[in-house]
């Protein structure tokens, strides 16, 4: 098992390396050159050309990619921070350290100063949402699946479909209308600012609710299908006809097998919660990672886009690794 | 007092088309410690009955009338709490497919220990001791290590032993067995049946065994019931049932089975015409009316036929049982005339054919230097347990796979390394195949006439639409199906009908050689007989050579002209069918023969049981492949040196270190008790 995890971890690093190259190629080829983006729209063309020259942006793609990797790993100094450029880009961590993602031209600050705050905010939102989604969808899905075909199953399935069919923004607006406009018990925006008159906890309620309701319906349907399938398996019949009490049949025999298939789906929700909840963040003006990535893309903030994409990729490959390992723990037949 | 007493039981299912009585009215008594067998084709309601006794009928099933008295309690009215104590505690069940009956994500130990903990509240330590003891009782070596394993780490036979152990753990007074050996190899089946007999004596448990296989039932049961369309039609002591069957259905079932010593030239199989009516569609008076050759208007279709006593303990539900004589002699016309020419032309010659699969750095020899021949118009049977490589050879021959070395001459061309795409259309047409599972071989979205028409066009037999239509009709007629059926979809056909379509398709291109891989093992006995008769008739008419792959030695004895016995990729013995079923035997053949469940309690068979499991094909013994399990092993020579081919005359070859003289001395496996 340990060897398997190590092997998969090495594969994951290789995947990240290949992905980083693709990310680099795509962002460097995006319209507008890096020097222009760095200096802004009002800089003179001569200044842009000069910077272009100094940053060696005429070098072949591979050379520039290796240099970028060098900056990231701390073996090469960040060229943008060169005082000779007189750009006044300064990073308190220095110009040469591991994990140097460069300088954000949009925020005029080191990427590391911007990125981690936003990621932290999103992780808080995602973590809370995940903590609601998993138990909620499991309870809904298992209850429906273990009574497949019953009135309870049909009721729960309908609720799940309705939950997952309402778009995030519509759900956001609806909840705001009820809890903000009508009941006045929650804030309409969540900038995570403790001086706004609402506590951080209160500000988190609505974004978490939107994500949880939208996603739990979907996951619950996956769990229900798998659970219903397992309940019809001959080994569940064996367990019943052994004379085991019903709760033991469900908990010991059905549940674990029923979770094997949805396990991957559940972990995939983490990827979505980290990088894909832009709509919810926009609706509630939440200072999250997705919104930052959207802004950076619209602005053309190359370093920030690269950094954020790499982080999202890292999260995605990590959950993949986690799901593969978890799969082997849950399913003895996969351990061969 | 009976242990189980079923009185006028009626089981109904609610379906989209209304309520259907799967069991209209059923009564049965089983005494303490008795071993009762219930036979009938699929669809007769056997499994429904078992599940009704267990109170497990799903959301749409219910007991609509009558009672199931067990140890004085009426199970049809038991509460959930009572059920919990009865299931697994007083009545336990062993299932048809052990592979799916065990939870794949729990260890064997966890699954076994649950039983004593749930019934009688044993502590974990007590439960462990008891589980280990029962595992030893079912003869699983090293119970401690078995306890720690997961189901997928055990073989099919071992899993069935675990399921039996699980059933016996709480010491139930009634054990229900639902086709517990179907799908297992014949040698494994024999061992499981031995085990059941042994455990029955040791635990004193009553057995209620359901099966479609009369041979299996004959090995285990004292009393046999025959079920048809949800009703018991005959109930008799085992010996009486086989000696003097009274109900036409029972006779039909027995006639469908090849008897030991009988073959296609002397005793043809007699099938039962028609199919089992679907639940609730059988006539009220006598369910068998529509398929019975002896049915008489006014007598059989008047009132519901009651169960009547023939003699002490022998009951039959037939209005004409007294008038109808003992089984009529089989019509001689149906027998297959023996092939006159002694030295028929050789159609297929395998010469050192090998199929090797590289597995990592190791080599898996699925076929290891196979050499034998098939003669024109003959039936060559290849027998062996699963893993013997018989299906691999069938695939190489049909061109679905290619041999890695050796020569395989078919009609004068070497096709060993030639899969279908490298063969000419004429050669493909000349070698055709019929597969085991008729459900999987027909495309569910095309009418069944489509593959026939397609084969006719592909092989250039017919091109014009009119020709094709006429040919399709002729093919359907050849397999005794109405021409109108060509527009039916596969799901509208029964298993037997589907297999007839598969045979018609294979004969579309007038093949010289037909490879049939277990063509009837998925079918009910009566249907099996019909399909076999059909196949043999067409084969004889066309002079086609048939390569018949099977694990069923009874069937092989019946239909083959020559037999090849394979074990772990190699030929153990080959020769004419008559020579193979009498001494001298290869020790493996002897073991296979002695494992055949014989549907005749008056016949004695030698009891040879193979120990251990078939070795991994990745790790084969360097000497004789069979050495690790051979009951007559001589010593180190068997382990180290490949056995010589001993010629017993008349093309009969035995690959064994034991001299022929000694092999000749063994007793015949089948003997009449005198």
Rounded Rg of chain B: 26 Å
- Classify the fold: give the CATH topology of the largest domain in chain B: Rossmann fold
**Pattern of helices and strands of chain A:** HHHHEEHHHHHHHHH
CATH topology of the largest domain in chain A: MetI-like fold
Question: How would you portray this structure in words?
Answer:
- The complex is a heterodimer of chains A (336) and B (674).
- In chain A, 71% of the residues lie in helices and 1% in strands.
- With 336 residues, chain A is mainly α.
- Chain A has two domains: 19-100, no CATH class; 113-335, MetI-like fold (Orthogonal Bundle), CATH 1.10.3720.10.
- Chain A has a two-stranded antiparallel ribbon.
- The model of chain A has no long low-confidence stretch (mean pLDDT 88).
- Chain B has 674 residues and is of the alpha/beta class.
- Chain B has three domains: 2-221, P-loop containing nucleotide triphosphate hydrolases (Rossmann fold, 3-Layer(aba) Sandwich), CATH 3.40.50; 346-439 and 447-564, P-loop containing nucleotide triphosphate hydrolases (Rossmann fold), CATH 3.40.50.300; 583-672, no CATH class.
- Chain B has an eight-stranded mixed sheet with strand order 6-7-8-3-9-10-12-11, with helices on both faces.
- Classes of the chains: A mainly alpha (336), B alpha/beta (674).
- Chains A and B meet through helix 9 and helix 10 of A and helix 2 and helix 4 of B.
């Amino acid at each position: 098992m340990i060897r398997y995890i190590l092997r998969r971890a090495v594969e994951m690093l290789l995947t990240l390396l290949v992905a980083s190259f693709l990310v680099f190629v795509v962002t460097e080829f995006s319209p507008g050159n890096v020097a222009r983006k760095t200096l802004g729209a009002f800089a003179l063309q001569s200044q842009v050309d000069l910077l272009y020259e100094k940053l060696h942006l005429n070098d072949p793609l591979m050379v520039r990619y290796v240099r970028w990797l060098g900056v990231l790993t701390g073996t090469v100094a960040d060229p943008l921070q060169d005082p000779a450029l007189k750009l006044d880009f300064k990073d308190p961590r220095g110009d040469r350290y591991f994990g140097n993602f460069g300088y954000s031209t949009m925020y005029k600050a080191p990427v590391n100063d911007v990125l981690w705050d936003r990621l932290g905010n999103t992780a808080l939102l995602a973590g809370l949402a995940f903590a609601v989604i998993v138990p909620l969808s499991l309870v809904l899905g298992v209850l429906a699946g273990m009574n497949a075909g019953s009135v309870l199953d049909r009721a729960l399935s309908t609720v799940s479909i309705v939950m997952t069919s309402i778009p995030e923004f519509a759900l956001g607006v609806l909840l705001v209308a009820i809890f903000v406009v009508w009941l006045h018990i929650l804030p309409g925006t969540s900038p995570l600012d403790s001086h706004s008159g609402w506590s951080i906890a209160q500000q988190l309620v609505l974004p978490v609710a939107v994500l949880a309701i939208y996603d739990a319906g979907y996951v619950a349907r996956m769990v229900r299908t798998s659970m219903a399938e397992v309940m019809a398996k001959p080994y569940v019949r064996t367990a019943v006809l052994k004379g085991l009490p019903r709760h033991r049949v469900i908990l010991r025999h059905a549940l674990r097998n029923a979770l094997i298939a949805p396990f991957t789906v559940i972990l995939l929700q983490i990827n979505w919660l980290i990088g894909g909840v832009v709509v919810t963040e926009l609706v509630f003006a939440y200072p999250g990672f997705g919104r930052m990535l959207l802004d950076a893309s619209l602005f053309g903030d190359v370093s920030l886009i690269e950094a954020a994409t790499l982080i999202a990729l890292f999260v995605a490959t990590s959950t993949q690794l986690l799901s593969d390992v978890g799969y082997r723990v849950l399913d003895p037949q996969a351990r061969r | 007092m009976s242990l189980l007493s079923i009185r006028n039981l009626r089981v109904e299912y609610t379906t989209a088309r209304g309520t259907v009585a799967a069991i209209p009215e059923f009564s049965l008594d089983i005494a303490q410690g008795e071993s009762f067998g219930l036979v009938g084709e699929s669809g007769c309601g056997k499994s429904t009955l078992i599940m009704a006794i267990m109170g497990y009928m799903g959301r749409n099933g219910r007991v609509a009338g009558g009672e199931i008295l067990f140890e004085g309690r009426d199970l049809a009215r038991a509460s959930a709490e009572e059920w919990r104590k009865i299931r697994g505690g007083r009545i336990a069940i062993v299932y048809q497919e052990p592979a799916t009956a065990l939870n794949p994500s729990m260890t064997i130990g966890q699954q076994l220990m649950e039983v004593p903990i749930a019934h009688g509240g044993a502590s974990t330590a007590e439960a462990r001791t008891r589980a280990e003891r029962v595992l030893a009782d079912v003869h699983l070596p090293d119970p401690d290590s078995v306890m720690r394993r997961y189901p997928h780490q055990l073989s099919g036979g071992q899993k069935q032993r675990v399921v039996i152990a699980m059933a016996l753990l709480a010491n139930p007074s009634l054990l229900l067995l639902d086709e517990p050996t179907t799908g297992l190899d014949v040698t494994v089946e024999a061992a499981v049946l031995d085990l059941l007999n042994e455990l029955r004596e040791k635990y004193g448990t009553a057995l209620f065994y359901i099966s479609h296989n009369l041979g299996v039932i004959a090995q285990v049961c004292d009393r046999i019931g025959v079920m048809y369309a949800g009703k018991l039609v005959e109930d008799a002591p085992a010996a009486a049932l086989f000696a003097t069957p009274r109900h036409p259905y029972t006779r039909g079932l027995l006639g469908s089975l090849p008897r030991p010593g009988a073959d296609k030239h002397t005793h043809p199989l007699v099938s039962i015409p028609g199919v089992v009516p679907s639940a609730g569609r059988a006539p009220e008076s006598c369910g068998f009316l529509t398929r019975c050759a002896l049915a008489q208007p006014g007598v059989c279709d008047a009132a519901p036929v009651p169960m009547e006593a023939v003699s002490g303990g022998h009951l039959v539900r037939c209005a004409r049982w007294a008038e109808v004589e003992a089984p009529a002699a089989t019509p001689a016309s149906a027998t297959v005339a023996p092939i006159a020419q002694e030295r028929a032309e050789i159609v297929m010659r395998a010469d050192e054919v090998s199929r090797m699969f590289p597995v990592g750095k190791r080599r898996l020899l699925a076929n290891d230097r196979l050499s034998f021949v098939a003669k024109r118009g003959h039936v060559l049977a290849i027998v062996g347990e699963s893993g013997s490589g018989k299906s691999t050879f069938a695939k190489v021959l049909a061109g679905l796979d290619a041999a890695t070395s050796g020569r395989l001459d078919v009609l004068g061309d070497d096709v060993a390394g030639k899969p279908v795409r490298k063969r000419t259309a004429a050669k493909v047409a000349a070698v055709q195949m019929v597969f085991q599972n008729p459900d999987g071989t027909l495309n569910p979205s095309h009418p069944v006439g489509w593959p026939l028409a397609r084969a006719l066009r592909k092989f250039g037999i017919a091109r014009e639409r009119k020709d094709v239509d006429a040919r399709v009709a002729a093919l359907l007629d050849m397999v005794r199906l109405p021409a109108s059926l060509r527009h039916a979809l596969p799901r509208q056909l029964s298993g037997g009908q589907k297999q007839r379509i598969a045979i018609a398709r294979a004969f579309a291109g007038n093949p010289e050689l037909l490879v049939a891989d277990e063509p009837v093992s998925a079918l009910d006995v009566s249907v099996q007989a019909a399909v076999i008769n059909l196949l043999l008739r067409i084969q004889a008419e066309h002079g086609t050579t048939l390569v018949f792959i099977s694990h069923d030695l009874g069937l092989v004895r019946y239909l083959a002209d020559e037999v090849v016995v394979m074990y772990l990729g190699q030929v153990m013995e080959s020769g004419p069918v008559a020579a193979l079923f009498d001494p001298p035997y290869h020790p493996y053949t002897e073991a296979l023969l002695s494992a055949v469940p014989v549907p005749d309690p008056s016949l004695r068979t030698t009891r040879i049981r193979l120990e251990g499991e078939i070795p991994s094909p990745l790790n084969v013994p360097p000497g004789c492949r069979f050495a690790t399990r051979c009951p007559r092993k001589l010593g180190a020579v068997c382990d180290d040196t490949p056995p010589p081919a001993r010629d017993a005359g008349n093309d009969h070859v035995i690959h064994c270190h034991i001299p022929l003289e000694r092999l000749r001395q063994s007793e015949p496996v089948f003997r009449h008790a005198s």
